[in-house]
């Protein structure tokens, strides 16, 4: 429910996290896609093809990868391989991993987007239902610290299918799935929150009175990590309720997986884009968001149109752009 638009639909699983900023697309309804995924449905990332046999990728993990091949390279099937096996933790099914990637046009050899040149970081959830059986199987052979290469496709804004080579460095996997830090004193204006054993929040009562006319943020738990900032690839857990009824309408906790997006890119409602900045990772906040910063005033345009929304958000990770 949170996503306002998806950058790209994709057949290349690992690019499902951030897509190509230069080729943004309105994408698909997140509910129709089965929740807040960042791509456009399941896809296969591995395969038995040898598309990458003619591609040379540099192995220096301390610098931007160089990708060399004779263009145009015809990508007739998805392909994936490990370029450098890292010495970090193994990646298992269900893990959420953070990566830094470069995307190269297979038809020209041109680098279209690169973290090393200021593009956002990205990530994936290693789940066959999200990225496909072959891609999930491939990533369970990869360890943290690895560099991998994948061949596949993206769809541009005009509907053109782009053949791509992605080279990604696995930076880390997210191991903490709830806010951790110091509980904070609140204003008492809004319902108090009770946390389940796994950290999932619930409201102790329905909201009362008139809601605020501007987005309001209350810090419930203050974390100790780096502060979030514009351009971060942000990963979080969240639950949302309608102010007028107190009814829950969406929750990442219920889906069993966190939600990720690039901060400040218009991928989510304004209340999220503007009010999840400058928060230490590990924090939990309550956001009370009026229609103007949510889904607008018209219920005919969205089922949440005209509603003030209440969210409790746990900030799990903030992957920064390169400094």
From TrEMBL:
Top-level taxonomic group: Bacteria
GO MF annotation list: peptidyl-prolyl cis-trans isomerase activity
Residue ranges of the region described as Disordered: 27-53, 178-214
Key word Isomerase present: yes
Signal peptide segment: 1-21
InterPro entries: FKBP2/11, PPIase_dom_sf, PPIase_FKBP_dom, TAT_signal
Positions with biased composition (Gly residues): 36-48
Start and end residues of each PPIase FKBP-type domain: 231-319
PANTHER family hit by this protein: PEPTIDYLPROLYL ISOMERASE
Protein name as it appears in the record: peptidylprolyl isomerase
């Amino acid at each position: 429910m949170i996503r306002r638009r998806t950058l790209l639909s994709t057949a290349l699983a690992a690019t499902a996290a951030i897509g190509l900023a230069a080729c943004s697309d309105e994408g698909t309804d997140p509910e129709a896609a089965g929740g807040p995924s960042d791509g456009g449905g399941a896809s296969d990332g591995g395969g038995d093809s040898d598309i990458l046999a003619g591609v040379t990728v540099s192995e220096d993990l301390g610098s931007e990868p160089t990708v060399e091949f004779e263009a145009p390279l015809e990508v007739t099937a998805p392909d994936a391989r490990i370029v450098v096996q890292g010495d970090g933790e193994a990646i298992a099914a269900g893990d959420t991993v953070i990566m830094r990637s470069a995307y190269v046009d297979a038809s020209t050899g041109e680098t279209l987007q690169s973290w090393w040149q200021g593009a956002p970081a990205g990530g994936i959830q290693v789940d066959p239902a999200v990225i496909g059986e072959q891609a999930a199987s491939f990533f369970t052979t990869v360890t943290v610290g690895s560099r991998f290469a994948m061949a596949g496709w993206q769809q541009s804004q005009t509907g053109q299918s782009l053949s791509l080579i992605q080279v990604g460095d696995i930076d880390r996997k997210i191991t903490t799935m709830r806010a951790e830090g110091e509980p904070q004193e609140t204003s008492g204006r809004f319902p108090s929150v009770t946390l389940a054993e796994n950290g999932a929040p619930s409201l102790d009562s329905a909201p009362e009175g008139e809601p605020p006319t501007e987005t309001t943020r209350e810090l419930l738990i203050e974390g100790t990590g780096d502060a979030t900032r514009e351009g971060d690839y942000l990963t979080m857990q969240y639950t949302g309720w309608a102010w007028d009824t107190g009814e829950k309408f969406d929750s990442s906790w219920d889906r069993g997986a966190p939600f990720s997006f690039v901060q400040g890119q218009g991928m989510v409602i304004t209340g999220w884009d503007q009010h999840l900045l400058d928060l230490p990772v590990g924090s939990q906040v309550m956001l009370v968001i009026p229609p103007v910063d949510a889904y607008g005033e018209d219920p005919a345009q969205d089922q949440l149109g005209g509603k003030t929304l209440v969210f409790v958000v746990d900030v799990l990770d903030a992957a920064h752009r390169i400094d």
